[in-house]
Design a protein that fits this description.
- The protein is α+β, with helices and mostly antiparallel strands.
- The chain folds into 3 domains: about 120 residues, Acyl-CoA dehydrogenase/oxidase, N-terminal domain (Butyryl-Coa Dehydrogenase, subunit A, domain 1, Orthogonal Bundle), CATH 1.10.540.10; about 110 residues, Beta Barrel (Butyryl-CoA Dehydrogenase, subunit A, domain 2), CATH 2.40.110; about 140 residues, Up-down Bundle (Butyryl-CoA Dehydrogenase, subunit A, domain 3).
- About 50% of the residues lie in helices and about 15% in strands.
- The strands form 2 sheets. The protein has a 4-stranded mixed β-sheet with strand order 1-4-5-8.
- It is globular and about 70 Å long.
- Bound molecules: flavin-adenine dinucleotide.
Amino acid sequence: MNLRLSADQEAFRRAVCELLCEDSVRDEVARTRRLPADDEPGLLEVYRRLGERGWLATNWPVEHGGLGSSIVEKAILTEQMIVHGIPDVVHTLSIDIVGLAIQRLGTEAQKSSLLPPLAAGRSVGCVLLTEPEIGSDLGGLSARAEPDGDGWRLYGRKVYSLKSQFADFALCAARTTESEVRFHGITVFIVPMRAPGVRVEPLWSMSDERFNEVVLSGIRMTPDDVLGDLDDGWQVLHDLLGIERTGIEFEAKARRLLDAVLDEAERAGSIKNSEYGELLVALDAEVRAGQLLAWQALGDMLDGELDDVRCAMAKWHTTETAKRISELGPEICGLTALLSARDDEAIPGWLLESAFRDAPGLTLASGTSEVMLSLIASAGLGLLS
Ligand SMILES: Cc1cc2nc3c(=O)[nH]c(=O)nc-3n(C[C@H](O)[C@H](O)[C@H](O)COP(=O)(O)OP(=O)(O)OC[C@H]3O[C@@H](n4cnc5c(N)ncnc54)[C@H](O)[C@@H]3O)c2cc1C
């Protein structure tokens, strides 16, 4: 594995870093962090600025709004956005999950109509998979597509979806055919989110990110709205989480959190406490190990061989590390860590308090830690056969 960036990639990293350090971007991020909890941002101006340069989706072809470069530039962009504190959920969902799936599996018509606005930072995509009774085990989903002429009508309730209140369209899994094999007969549809028959309601939680419940009551779908093959949505779902499971996003989060803890611990003098000193050194090593795992998984993607087990290792390690750091923040930094970014006394851009509230979600979203461990044990180590 070669972890060194080429001269062009290094130049790209510096150019992204320069843009994200501009005062206007910092001001926008600081303003966003102080918004009331029920007023989270959707598309930010910084997304449009990245989009107009082709940087949001660097690895997509030029005709779809990218630069036609490799996945490495994409990973650099993701890392830099997180390191600079840019809210990244809209980006992850729209580009790394929804956009990537359309890029890989969409028809030419789907690609040319949906990808350019996503890449330009003018459109938002979201994901509707989880239901009140199923999360990890998507084979048991109950949303259904009932035949209607040459198409279908979609019915069902989806929960815990992020950013669906801003989304222009969603990737939504529903059952098209009853089958004894539970993973057969699922189809992924591209659903317009502002059409009649789609209702979005908030599901409040302690996180700053608002979850939603999305109720589908008979919205009409045609064969043009199917992503991938009919009844073969399982394959689409497998591909959906590819880049997210490489852990790039999470290793960058862990680094940013640890740096914030280190700065504050140094300021408060707790770094001199030998117990914390040793712990911080150990955490630094774990963050670096997570970075290696994530870039290794990304390297597999670059070679066209997304390795499920290596992705699971990276996802498990990076999210568990980020979660531990979030939870240790208040212990190491003291009460300062519990100041909200909205508090006048907080350091500008303060993130430990919101990270503490977000921590439980890290090891649940896009595959829980237990499911990752089970995959590593069975497919990786052959232990559970
Ligand atoms: C921050 C965040 C963002 C999310 N965003 C979205 C979104 O945009 N769209 C969307 O559709 N969903 C979203 N989700 C939902 C997410 O996909 C589910 O929470 C996740 O799939 C787990 O499902 P569940 O919560 O129903 O838990 P369950 O699957 O019911 O699991 C419950 C517990 O059982 C364990 N478990 C389950 N199966 C196994 C197994 N085979 N082996 C061992 N242990 C197991 C799990 O680890 C967990 O501890 C989001 C969740 C979070 C936290």
